[in-house]
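Let's see one such:

===
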Amino acid sequence: MESKQLYHRGYCRNSYNSIASASSDEELLDGAGVIMDFHTTEDDNLLDGDAASPGSNYAMSNGGGAASSSTHLLDFLEEPIPGVGTYDDFHTIDWVREKCKDRERHRKINSKKKESAWEFTKSLYDAWSGWLVILSFKLQCITFGALAGLIDIAADWMNDLKEGVCLSAMWFNHEQCCWTSNETTFAERDKCPQWKSWAELILGQAEGPGSYIMNYFMYIYWALSFAFLAVCLVKVFAPYACGSGIPEIKTILSGFIIRGYLGKWTLMIKTITLVLAVASGLSLGKEGPLVHVACCCGNIFSYLFPKYSKNEAKKREVLSAASAAGVSVAFGAPIGGVLFSLEEVSYYFPLKTLWRSFFAALVAAFVLRSINPFGNSRLVLFYVEYHTPWYLFELIPFILLGVFGGLWGAFFIRANISWCRRRKSTRFGKYPVLEVILVAAITAVVAFPNPYTRQNTSELIKELFTDCGPLESSQLCQYRSQMNGSKAFSDNPNRPSGPGVYAAIWQLCLALIFKIIMTIFTFGLKVPSGLFIPSMAIGAIAGRIVGIAMEQLAYYHHDWFLFKEWCEVGADCITPGLYAMVGAAACLGGVTRMTVSLVVIVFELTGGLEYIVPLMAAVMTSKWVGDAFGREGIYEAHIRLNGYPFLDAKEEFTHTTLAREVMRPRRSDPPLAVLTQDDLTVEELQGVINETSYNGFPVIVSKESQRLVGFALRRDITIALENARRKQEGILLNSRVYFTQHAPTLPADSPRPLKLRSILDMSPFTVTDHTPMEIVVDIFRKLGLRQCLVTHNGRLLGIITKKDILRHMAQMANQDPESIMFN
C-alpha cells in the first residue's frame, strides 16, 4: 500500500515511466522529480555507520518482548492526514509536488476502476472532468459576462446622476433618456425635456451663475458620496477589494497563496465598489479590476470539482482562463484577452489552458454582446470607422507618440511607486478614507469646469477616437468652411481649424496635465482602481493634439516634401482620430510594457485592423523607450513594492555568482536547522518547531555524516504531530521519531515510536555549491520550486529558498533586499 501512495514515497521517485506517460504540457514539471534524486530507500540506513547486526537492525521491544516493527507497530500514517500537503497563507506552492499529486491521484483512480462499478464510474468522471470544467466555464462566463454588463450599465447611470436625472425613467442615463424625445436638435442632441439638471430641479432655472454653482455643488456632492461609500465598503467588508488586483493575480498565478483574495466577499464588494469608484469621477478605470472579478468567479466555480479545488496547480489553470475572460468582457476583445493572459499574468500556461481560455473569452464576449451594455449593438467599446488609409510619412509622428508613451510610462511608474512608498511609510497611509475623500474632492473641483475632464473617461476616449463627419457635433469637429465661415463642418476634407477646435485644443492640454497628475495619486487608493482607461485617455489626448497639428500642417503646407507626394490639394490625408488611437496604445504600452496582446486588444477594441502597423510601431517604440529607464512595468513594480515572491520570467540574471554565495547559513549565521532520520524525540522535534520559523527542514542520516535523506515541511510536521496525539495511543514526549522505512532498535521500556516517513520528500532538489546562480534561477523559474538544497560531495551544506534568490537579485540590482517579505 505504501509504495502506491504519494505521501508515502515522497513524490516523483523512480518515475521515468510516469514521465513517458505524461501529457506534453506536463513533461517539463513532471520530469523534474528525477533530476536530482540520488537517494534510494535501501541506502537510507546503510549510510549510518552505527547499524547493528542483521538480526536486530529493525526490531524493537515494547512492553512484553521483541516483535517485528512491520507487524506490531501502528503506522497511523498509512492513510493521508487531513491538512498534510496544504499551504499556509502568504506562502508559495510547490509546483512539482502539486503536479505529482495530480498524477498520483490519476494513477490511483485507474488502478481501482476494475474493482467495482462505483470505482469505474469515478474513473469515468475523472476522465470527463475536463469537459465538465468546460461546461462550468460556460456557466462562469455567462455569470461573469452578465455581471460585467451590469457594471457597465450601472457605472454609466451613476456617472450621469452627478449632473442630473431622467424624470420619465429614473433608471435611464442621459443618452438613453433622450433617445425617444422628439424635441432634440442636431446641435443640442443631449438636451431634451425629459432630462433635468439638478439646478433645474432645485432652483427651477437652467442658465445663469446660480444654476452653474448649484450644478457644481451637486457634482462635488455626488462624487464625494460615491467615493466615501466605496472606500468604507472596502475597508469594512473586503480590504482585498481595493486596487487593480492584477499585481496580486500575477503573484497568485505564479504559485503564491493569498487566502480570501479570490473569495465571495471580495467578489461582491469589488463589484459594488467598482461601480461607485468609476462613478465618483476619480482618474481610474474598471477594466483592470474586472480581471480580478473574473478570477474570483473562476476560483468559486473551481470548488465544484475536487480535481481543481484540492490541487493548487490545477486551480491556477482555471484562473488563467478566467483572467482571459476578464479582459474579453472589459474590452470586448476575446483574442486579446487570451493573449493578455498568456503574456501578462500567467506563470504556467500549458496548451490545454490556451483553448480553455479561448473558450472562456468567447462565451464571455457572447454574453456581453447579448446584453449590449454600450448601446451600439457592437461588441467593441470604441468602434471607429476611418475613411482614409495611413501613409508612410505618418510613421514619424506615430513613432514620436511611441516615444511619448515610453517617457510617460517611465515617469508614471517612478512617480506612482514613490508616492505609494511614501504612503506606506508615513502616517498619511493610516487614514485611507481621508485620502480617498481628499483625492476625490480635488478631482471633482478641478474636473467640473473642463468638459473633457468632467465627462466619463470612456466617453472621452470614444470622442477622441472618432473621426469628424457630417453627423458629429463635437467641438473638435468645428472646422471653418472656405465658403461659409459659420458652418460647423465642411464637406471639403481639406479644411482649416475653426475657433472651436482651437478652444478644444487648449482644454485638451489642460485635461492632459490634469489626467497625468491625478492618475499618479489615484492608482493605489483603497478603492478598486484600474489603469487601462486612464493611460489610454492620456495617450488619446496627446495623440489627438498631434493629429490636429499634423492635419493643419498638411493643410497650410501641402507643398512640403512630406505632404507633396501623398496629400494632394483637396484630399484628406490626415485622420486625427487615428493618432488618438495610436497614442492610447503607446501610453498603455509604456505603463504596462505589454506588446502583442496590447496591439490585438486595441485593434479589437476599435475594429481598426487596417491600422495594425502604426499600432505595432508605436507600442514597440514605447516599450524600448520605457525599458531604457527600467525594464519592469507598473504591475511588476507594485509586486516588488509589496514584497511578493514573484520571479519574473522576463527579467534576465546575468551575474556570475555561485550557489554557495547565496545559500544559507552564511558564515555569520547559526548552523542550519536539520532533523536526523531516527534519533529525535517528539519533545526535541517540537522544540525545533517552536524555536525556529523556517518553512521546512532537511532530514539527514546523522549530524556526523551530514548525508541527505529528504526534506520535511514545517506545516506537515506540525499537523502530523497533532494528529498523532489525537489518534495514536502511546505517543509521549520522549517517543522516538523516525523517518526511515523501518523502526530503529529501541530499549524494551521505550514508548511507542512515531513514524513520519510519509510526510518526507525523498527526492528534494539539490545542486552543488559550485552551481552558477544563473542555472539555479532558471530551475526555480521553470519548475516553480520553493527551496533547493546545496550539497558538496553528497554532504548537506545549506539551503536556497525562493526568498533568498529574490533578495540576492535585489541586492545585485542595488535595491533593498529586505523588501522581499514573503516566502
Remarks:
- The radius of gyration is 32 Å.
- The chain is about 55% helix and 5% strand.
- The mean pLDDT is 80.
